[in-house]
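Record 1 of the preview.
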Amino acid sequence: MESTVSQKLEALLNLQKLDSRLDAIFKVRGALPEEVQDLEDEIIGYETRLEKFNNDLSSLENDIKTFKENIKESEKLIKKYQEQQMNVRNNREYDAITKELELQDLEIQVSKKKIGESQARIESKNTDVEALKEVLSERQKDLDTKKKELDTIVSESENEESKLKNDREKATKKIEDRLLKSYNKIRDNAKNGLAVVMVKRGACGGCFNIVPPQRQADIREKKKLIVCEHCGRIFAGVEDEIEEEPVKKKRSSRS
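->
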């Protein structure tokens, strides 16, 4: 059976009340959840950089190892060529061996230079690693502090939040999908999270613009869904002002 407009408005207003109570809980937490998330993302970034530094250091160490092996190989060849040079038969063989010796000597010099460059880069990267580890340690401390603070706040309202979320889930099932989508869209665009409001003191309970008397009368009837022409919020009804009874003055007794 399709709900009446009055029932739809009642369901929407109930959902709004639940969401407003949840908003109040989240407001107490302030920016802490975002700060925790930002710190976690920042730490992941630092850890990624640290991993890259360690990979670079490992690569440089392997390069040094390779250069040292090249030096040993060149030294072996030099020893071999020197022995061959003692037994040359002509100048051409002598010159050829001499060139090989010079080439291997050059290989040794290049390898030693590259070892020096790699060691300098390792030293520089180790300095960067230590600085990064220090920053990472500080940010981890900040994260631990923020998480502890957030966990304390969350634990204080955990039961209430869980109940509200459960009630909210039940409340959404009483609202048709199209109307629920409209509600969520209005709520997302509203700074105070209000999508459904009452007319209070002749004005919209969301943007506080005046609602004409005839429009208020239509809202009271609840025959159709009416939205604020200024902010687009849904009107759930009109709150009647309770007039205070005038205080009767006590008659002063004649003396």
